[in-house]
Amino acid sequence: MPLNLRHAQEELRTQLNAAALPLVNFVTTLEDALSTADLAIDCVPDELESKLEIFCLMDRMAPPRTVFVTPSVNQSIADLASCTYRPEKCVAILRSPRNFIAASEMHGSPLQLAMTSRTAGEVREMVEQFFSMLGFSTETSLDAAESAR
User: Fold this and answer.
1) At the topology level of CATH, where does 39-148 sit?
2) Greater confidence, 123 or 94?
3) With contact defined as beta carbons under 8 Å apart, do 70 and 45 qualify?
4) What is the C-alpha to C-alpha distance for residues 23 and 25, in angstroms, rounded to an integer?
5) Rounded mean pLDDT, 53-78
6) Which of 13, 24, 37, 106 is the most buried (most CB within 10 A)?
C-alpha cells in the first residue's frame, strides 16, 4: 500500500468516532470498493482527466444503486455526472480531499456539498445522513456551473 494512502487512512481513523468507523471501509482496488458499495467517495487528484476516468470506471463497475461522491473544487459535478449513466446519483464535496480528511482544518464548519438539478432527493438525504453519522454537518447548493447556464 502506498505510504500516502496509509497516512490518509490513519488520519481519517483518528478523526472518526468509534460509532462511525464501522461505516467506512478502506480498500485499494475499485473492485473491492464498488462490489457492494451504496456510496463511493473517490480520492483522485482534482484534475478533469482523473475525475472523468474514475467516474467512467466507477459507473461501469458499481451496482446501479451506488452513489458517487467526489471531493472537488475545480470540476463541475454537473459536467462529471453527465458522463455517467447515473447523473442523479453524483454529488461533489466543495473542499479539497486534504481539507475533507483533516477535520482540524475545518474548525467545525459544515461540508459544502454541490448537487445538480437532476440529483435525486433520496440521494441528497443519503449523503447528508452518511456525513452526519461521521460527525459532519452539511450545507447543500446547486452546482455553480449548472446554475450559471
Assistant:
1) Rossmann fold (3.40.50)
2) 123
3) no
4) 7
5) 95
6) 37
Residue 27 is placed in which grid cell?
480498500
User: What number of H helices and E strands is found in the chain?
Assistant: 8, 5
| Residue 87 to residue 79: CA distance in whole angstroms | 9
Q: Which residue has the higher pLDDT, 119 or 10?
A: 119
CB 114, CB 143: distance < 8 Å: yes
**Which cell numbers hold the place of 8?**
490518509
Distance between CA atoms of 27 and 122, rounded to whole angstroms?
26
| Domain limits, the chain | 39-148
Q: What is the DSSP letter of 95?
A: S
Strand partners, 141: 114
Residue corresponding to grid cell 482544518: 105
Q: Which amino acid is at 26?
A: F
Question: Residue 20: enclosing H or E segment and its boundaries?
Answer: none
Question: Which range among 35-39, 84-88, 129-133 has the greatest average pLDDT?
Answer: 84-88
Q: Which residue has the higher pLDDT, 16 or 34?
A: 34
pLDDT tens for each residue of 86-95: 999 999 998 6
What distance in Å separates the CA atoms of residue 90 and residue 66, rounded to the nearest whole number? Answer: 9
